[in-house]
Amino acid sequence: MSILIDENTTFIIQGITGREAINLTRECLDYGSKIVGGVTPGRKGREVHGVPVFDTIAQLIEHNGGQVPDGSVVTVPPAGTKDAVFEALYAGIKTIVVVTERIPRRDVAAMVELADRNGARIIGPNCLGLIVPGVAKMGGIGGPAKNAAQAYQPGSVGVMSRSGGMTTEISSTLTAAGLGVSTAVSIGGDAIIGSTYAELMPYFEADEQTQAIVIYTEPGGRMEAQLSAWVKENNSRLPIIAFMAGKFMDDDEMQGMSFGHAGTIVEGKEDSATEKIARLQEAGIPVVERIDEIPDMVKKLIAERSAA
Amino acid sequence: MRFYEYEAREIVKRAGIPVTDYGFTTDADEAATIAERIAGPTVIKSQVLTGGRMKAGGVKFADTPDEARAHAADILKLEINGLQPRGVLVDPKADVKQEYYMGVVWDGAAKKPLMLFSDMGGIDIEQVAEEHPDHVGRGHFSTLEPFSDFMAKQVIADAGVTGKALQRCTPILARLAQLFLDNDMLLAEINPLAELHDGTFVALDAHMEMENEGMGRQKALIKALGIGPEEGTRETYVPSAFEEAVLAVDAADHRGVIQGKDNGFDGNIGLIIGAGGGSLTLTDAVRQQGGKPANYSEIGGNPSVAKACGLAKAVLQKDGVEQIAVMMSIVSNTRVDIVARGVIKACLELGKDPAETIAIFRIPGAWEDEGFKILDKYGIEYCDRSVSLWDAAGRAVAKIQGAGA
Q1: Domain B21-93: which topology?
Q2: Among the CATH numbers 2.40.128.270, 3.40.190.10, 1.10.443.10, 3.30.470.20, which is that of B1-19+95-236?
Q3: Percent of chain A with pLDDT over 90
Q4: What is the helix (H) or strand (E) element at residue B164, kind and residue range?
């Protein structure tokens, strides 16, 4: 199986006529994803790689006989992203991948809050989406179908990463080691994101194909503290392995990040690489030094769990 | 974007929060005129985008207009943490009975804005939160629903405040919460909010920081504050010559994104690395294996040959750089062959042999076969995805150390 999307998932692309979106559409179609339409206001009647384009989601749904698509990939400029996501949420779409970068925080918070109320899930913003190897991908993750197939083979490990590019690097390492990937999610690196590690854990927990989780993380934010708390509170069957990038930023001469005092009491001292590593390890999540150590660690922990 | 205190107080004032009858000036004589108008003791405060003003002598008290003029003249010349003041603020010395703290900030974990309030104002809220947690009230609020005063009242009451102070502080915190949202702030803080002996409340200092991503739709406010577009986002540090060079290359061509930083780096390995997460991972890997990076860089988003070339040239021309390492995590939209062409072009244009200058090239992914062909032609050492980021970084370090021996 997989999480969030499977072979039957239908989705749309909002902002489909943009340069990047046209590539993204091609990549997803080639990979086998079911794209049932696209939306760009004012471009009704066009086609992008055979996908019909509409002015609104309502038109798209009407064209499809009232069928609400399962998901949407939103790739519209930052000023229009909140509105596009609201349109998708009001239409009843439940899984929304927001590719757009540099969206003001107020807008991200509003769309996440509305998604929560509607029982919908946002992945991103500022992310490459998600991929179920050999089945479907939703977003630019892995690039063209040929490249995606090379790096992502079906397997037993779930991947969650704050960096889009590193999702592929880690998955490729797992693929090369014969472990493969169940579902890989590029969750985005912004201060507020729709789906954090801890929020996605229950999905992986329920996915029989997944036997272990690998996360890629960076300094900033409290997402690892949340994951550590989740692990302590839930008796998860899944071992988690973490990789932490950006340790050099902890050095005194590198201190360039500015936070107000009030910011510090919210984030605590939990946002440096050193603190995060300590917190993860305390929750029993090993933090490897190198990406290429991940496969052996995954194998070791899966073996330990199955022996126990 | 950060704001000077006089601007932050203007923002607060526009939101309907009471402030003192202060004046801002860049001229010592005018400081005296403002003091005259105030007709009482004043505080002269340096307007500079850094903390520690008091300790540095950037805040002084005056009893007369002449004294205000003299202090203003001193403070206008006083550099604090390497920064020149924008001007001085002449503020009536308030007759303070009690100081409070109020602030609004984003809580990334809750994904909502958070109000903070304390009856122990005037000092770091961080310290109060640690030592007197019962004196700090906190409350999240919605970005979808209208704000209502009771939400602010709860936070203030949670800090243990009641009576007239609770009634008076409630609309002030409510307005601060509203202005935080309306103006795309990352931080909106009044510290101290003073209760005067006559029972009125007034903001004695304010600290505002606007999210850069929100500046586009806050143009009216920015303009009203008299901030010109040339001020940019008011980054705190001055870019180095290398950083300026990279910024210029990036600005000259819209394809792809590059970033080059060298604040804190002074080694001999020039880095052409990316993208976001890959840069962090690779910089760690080079350092952990004993290498000394000359810079930090990010390249991605399918840059043009010119952009890759421009970045490589800037790195190669940095003092102390002997060789460059060109490395990325597996790429999907950035074309390997284009980056290869760009870095080779940079070497050739600077009269250097690419094979000697490029310590390692590790970019697997889109168009890699074409890229590898070009690298072969110039005799450059490269590797594919079967060589890890760690090992690629290690090879670059070993090579440069061998070259130096």
Answers
A1: Dna Ligase; domain 1 (3.30.1490)
A2: 3.30.470.20
A3: 84
A4: helix B163-182
Span A134-170, pLDDT tens digits = 999 999 999 999 999 999 999 999 999 999 999 999 9
pTM, whole model, 2 decimals? 0.94
In whole angstroms, give the CA distance from residue B236 to residue A258: 9
Residues of A in contact with B189 (CB under 8 A): 260-262
Nearest residue, CB atoms, B211 vs list A105, A218, A292: A105
Which active-site residues of A does the annotation give?
261
Chain B residues in contact with A173 (beta carbon < 8 A): 388
The helix/strand count (H/E) of chain B reads as 15, 15
The pLDDT tens digits for B343-363 are 999 999 999 999 999 999 999
Given an 8 Å threshold on Cβ–Cβ distance, is B264 in contact with A110? no
CB pair distance less than 8 Å for B129 and A218: no
> By mean pLDDT, which of A109-118, B79-88, B215-224 is the weakest?
B79-88
- Report strand pairing: B42-47 vs B87-92: antiparallel
B256 close contact with A: CB closer than 8 A: no
Partner-chain residue, chosen from A222, A245, A264, that has the shortest CB–CB distance to B280: A245
Q: How many whole angstroms from its chain centre is CA A143? A: 15
Does the CB of B107 have a partner CB in chain A at under 8 Å?
A: yes
ipTM of the complex: 0.93
Q: Looking at this protein, which amino acid is placed at residue B397? A: V
